[in-house]
Amino acid sequence: MKKSITVSKCLALLVAAVLSPHGNSAPTSIAFLEGFTGEDPNTARELYRGTEVFFQLHPEARHRFVLTKWDTQGKPEQAYQIIKRLAEQGVKVAIGISKSDEAIAAAKAADEKGVLFVTPYATNEEVTRNRKMTFRTCYSDPAQGRALADFVSTYLRPKRLLILVNGSLKYSQGLAGIVESELRDSKTKTRSLIYSTDDLRLSEVVTAVKDFEPSAVFIPDHIIRASLLAREIHRFAPEITFVGADGWGGKKTFRAILGPVGTMRIYYSTHWAEGFAGSENKRFEAGYKRLFPGDSPTSGAALAYDTMQLFERAFKRLQVNERANAELLVKRISSLSLVGASGPISFAGGRRSPRRGVFIVHPTDSEYKVVEVVSGE
C-alpha cells in the first residue's frame, strides 16, 4: 500500500526548508588565486593554509561558501585571464594573490568583469586605487612606507640611508619612493640605486656602499633577493643596519631563506607576529598548530584567515540569494570592522585599504621581537 503525502506534510516540509539556517541553496563559490607554481610557492601555500584554518575553526561557514584553487603561476597576465574566466563561469568572488604586480592585473580584470576581488597580502597602492571591486586585508604601501620612514627617522636616525630599488617590481619602486619622499625633510640623507630581478648589480651595489658610506640600507624587495643583497653588503660592511619591508616575510619564511642572522642588525615591517596579544590570534595560532603539527603560522596565513573572517561577516548580512551578488558584497565589506588574528581591521567609511597597524620586528638568532606597532595613517 502506497503512503500518501498529505497537504499538511508538504507544508511542514516547506516551512522546515525555509527556516533551515542553510536551506537547500548551494554554497557560493569563491575562487582562491595564488602562484602555486610560481617564484614563491611557500607564500602561496601559507595563504591557502590560512583559509584551511578558518574552515577548521568555522565549520558552519562551509554551508555559505566554498573555495576553488586557481594557479596564477606567479604571472600578472595569468591572474588577469583567470578573473575573466571566472566571470564567464558566473563566479563573482575571488581572493588571494600576494604579489602586487599580479594583484594589479587581477584588480583591473575585476573592475572590467564585475568580480569582487580581495587580496590578503598585496600592498602596492595601485591595487585598490580608483577600483570599485577590489579590497585588501593588509595595509597599503603608503601606510607601510610612512610607518617605516617614521621608524627610521625617530628610532634608527641614520645620517645616510641607501635605498636599493628593484626596478622590475612596482612593489619595490612604490615603497622606495614613499620612504624617500617621507624622509626628504628629515636629517637623513638618502640615495637610491636601481637593480632588476634578473640582475642584482652586486658590483655596483658594493661601489655605492663604499662611496656613499650609509649607516643603514633599505631593501624593499622580496626576501629571496633582499637576503642576497644584504649578505653581500654585510660581508664587507658589517656595521650597516638593514631595513626591510613586508616582502621579507614572516618569521618562518625569513629564517628559512636568510638563515642565521649572526651579527647582522635587521629591522623590517610585517603584518603579524607570532605570539601577538589578542584572543582571536591565540585561537588562530592554536588552530594552525592543530591542523599543521610541528609547523608555525605565518603572516600570510594570518591575513588569509582574516580575509575569510571578512567574508563570513559580510555573508551573514546578506540573504542566501544575495551572496553571489558582488555589488552587494562590496557594500557590506565597505562598512565592516573586525578584530582579526592580525589585529583590528576597519573598512569603515568605504575604505578599500583598511585602517590597521604596521608591525616593526627585530629578528636575531635567539628571538623575533616586535619593536613597535606603528600607524601609517
Summarize the structure.
Helix content is 42%, strand content 20%. It is of the alpha/beta class and 377 residues long.
Count of separate DSSP helical elements: 12
CATH class division of the largest domain: Alpha Beta
Strand order within the widest sheet? 7-6-8-9-10-13-14
Low-confidence sequence ranges: 1-5, 7-24
Rg estimate, integer Å: 23 Å
Number of domains: 2
Profile the largest sheet: 7 strands, mixed
> If you average the pLDDT, what whole number results?
91
Secondary structure: number of strands: 14
Topology pattern, helix = H, strand = E: HEHEHEHEEHEHEHEHEHEHHHEEEE
Beta-sheet strand percentage? Answer: 15-25%
Determine the fraction of residues in helical runs and give it as a percent range: 40-55%
Task: Please name the CATH topology of the largest domain.
Answer: Rossmann fold
**What is the rounded distance between the termini?**
75 Å
Structural class computed from helices and strand pairing? alpha/beta
- Shape category: globular
CATH architecture of the largest domain: 3-Layer(aba) Sandwich
Quaternary form: single chain
Q: Keywords, please?
A:
Rossmann fold, 377 residues, alpha/beta, 14 strands, disordered N terminus
Please characterize this protein's 3D structure.
The chain has 377 residues and is of the alpha/beta class. The protein has twelve helices and 14 strands. It has helices spanning 7-19, 41-57, 76-88, 100-113, 141-156, 170-182, 202-212, 223-236, 251-258, 279-291, 299-316, 326-333, and strands at 28-34, 65-71, 93-96, 116-119, 134-136, 160-166, 189-195, 216-219, 241-244, 265-270, 337-340, 343-346, 357-363, 368-375. A seven-stranded mixed beta sheet has the order 7-6-8-9-10-13-14, sandwiched between helices. The chain is globular. It starts with 6 loop residues before the first helix and ends with a strand.
